[in-house]
Amino acid sequence: MLETMTQQPQPAARPGAQEPAPRAPKRGLDRTGPFDLGDKVQLADSKNRLHTITLRPGGEFHSHRGVLRHDQLIGAEDGVVVEDSNGTRYQALRPLYADYMLSMPRGAAIIYPKDSAQILMWGDIFPGARVLEAGVGSGGLTTALLRAVGPEGSVHSIERREDFAEVARENVETFFGQLHPSWQLSIGDFQEIAPTLSPDEPAVDRVVLDMLAPWECVDAAAEVLVSGGVFLAYVATVTQLSRTAEALRDHG
Question: Residues 187, 162: contact at Cβ < 8 Å?
Fold first, then answer.
């Protein structure tokens, strides 16, 4: 038995109505779609050995097995399988966030994906959250925070060292394809900058610290955190944990 369906006529556009503007192509690693110039591409061979390249006009990837032209990838879909000059097959994939975090240029030690995931969960980083971060390092956690808060949220990062801040800025820009509109980066001490962010009333939902002495920042964090906000410190030793817990207890 055949079942037929007649397409209903679409209502005519109202006079003067404007057609929706086409969406601008999204650059950076945080996107989907065909590969384009400037994209980072991860090539996986039959033994799952990974090679990351950046697509350039007339570019080539050379290995001991052969040569793969970048033009073979430009315009191709994510996941395509291509062959080099000697017939070696590679699957081309856009690097995932975890791949990028582990391979990004570093000014300081990064927070690894498993720890970033714990921070996002226990810090309850939600879409629309206003996050104050200190100790930006190489920008790995910053990138995770920006993805979690979404376009309605914001992340303000504070870093004491200008060289670390520059590395983080470049890494975040590479991942998103631009400087993220919801991100602000300040250079200086947390205790000095944090109180100036909301002098009239608390305006931060979450404070996330990755530094040697987070206990020194408890008072400044309390000034900007809203009622019910979350203070989270990422520390490496029991001594740091103990001193931070004591500072929180003393603050009340």
Answer: yes
Q: Are residues 66 and 188 in the same domain?
A: no
Do 138 and 241 fall into the same domain? yes
Do 227 and 114 belong to one domain? yes
The domain total for the chain is: 2
Q: Which CATH number fits the domain that encloses residue 81?
A: 3.10.330.20
The share of the chain scoring above pLDDT 90, in percent, equals: 66
Mean pLDDT of 106-127: 92
Q: CATH no. for residue 239?
A: 3.40.50.150
Angstrom distance (rounded) from CA 3 to CA 20: 34
Count how many Cα atoms sit within 13 Å of the Cα of residue 78 in the half-sphere of its side chain. 12
Q: Which residues of 1-88 form beta strands (DSSP E)?
A: 40-44, 50-54, 60-62, 67-69, 81-83
Distance (Å, whole) CA 116 – CA 63: 34
Amino acid at 13: A
One domain for residues 111 and 217? yes
Domain of residue 52, residue span: 40-93
Residues 6+ apart with CB under 8 A from 77: 33, 34, 35
177 three-state secondary structure: coil
Q: What tens digit of pLDDT does each residue of 121-159 get? A: 999 999 999 999 999 989 999 999 999 999 999 999 999
Choose among 210, 107, 125, 212: nearest CA to 165: 107
Q: Which long-range contacts (CB under 8 A, 24 or more apart) does 50-55 make?
A: 50/99, 51/90, 52/95, 52/99, 52/103
In this structure, are residues 184 and 154 in contact, taking their beta carbons and an 8 Å threshold? yes
Residue with token string 């556009």 = 13
Q: Which amino acid is at 111?
A: I
